[in-house]
Amino acid sequence: MNLPIEILFEDEHLLAVNKPAGILTIQDGYDAAKPFLSHLLSEHFGRLWVVHRLDRDTSGVLLFARNAQVHRSLSLQFERRQVQKIYHLITYGHLAQEEIEVTHPLRVDADRRHRTVVDPFRGKPACTIFRILKRLENDFLLLEAQPLSGYTHQIRAHLSALGLQILGDKLYKPHPVPPNRPIYPLAPDSPATQRVALHAFALSFRHPQSPRKRITLMAPYPSDFTSLLEILIPA
Questions:
Q1: Bigger pLDDT: 2 or 90?
Q2: Parallel/antiparallel/unpaired status of strands 84-92 and 140-147
Q3: What is the Cα–Cα distance from 15 to 123, expressed in whole angstroms?
Q4: Is 55 a catalytic residue?
Q5: Which of 34, 90, 136, 168 is the most exposed place for a label (fewest CB within 10 A)?
Q6: Cα–Cα distance for residue pair 169/20, rounded to 1 Å
Q7: pLDDT (tens digit per residue) in 155-211
Q8: What is the DSSP string of 199-229?
Q9: Where are the chain's structural domains?
Q10: Among 181, 170, 203, 172, which residue's Cα sits nearest to residue 19?
Q11: Homologous superfamily in CATH for domain 6-232
């Protein structure tokens, strides 16, 4: 295994890692030669079942099952929304409330760029809770996001509807774009331009073999995320 992967939890049923940014969770549908994490890990840990996915640019807690029975159990927990997911993200834009619940209906794969969009008529019910963890320089924010539904790019689409943008996100812009203001005023070589500043910070679920035992896993920030925070912390 060429990548240094931090193991967050391991037993005979489960494997959880702190996924680095920049690598796919599963095989790319267009380029099968691209490396993907489930394959790299299986070379060391044996066959793994993918329970959920993180986008290539997203870092953080990623959970795998080590047999088909555990995979079914965990998949049901995700499907029934019994898994608590917490993301940390760095955004640009003004937000007055310390906490806000966004319930705009979402439609997945809604345009040629395969974006998830707010659609009051054809969208499906969705909910994301955002909390401000720290106000940074200017209108930069360290936010916590808790998606209560599980749609692709849900956090990014709901942020866009709030007039916010995750740093490094070139796909989802604030809608509408705030007048007379750049999307985010950082230099082109800033860490914020290298990937979407989104980190899957924590995952909480019931252990499939011990239903009364709830496990909460937390993934430390990667160095690029930490460096960006240091740049933006008020002097």
A1: 90
A2: antiparallel
A3: 34
A4: yes
A5: 34
A6: 17
A7: 999 999 999 989 988 899 886 666 655 556 666 566 666 789 999 999 999 999 887
A8: EEEEEEEEETTEEEEEEEEE-PPPHHHHHHH
A9: 6-232
A10: 203
A11: Pseudouridine synthase (3.30.2350.10)
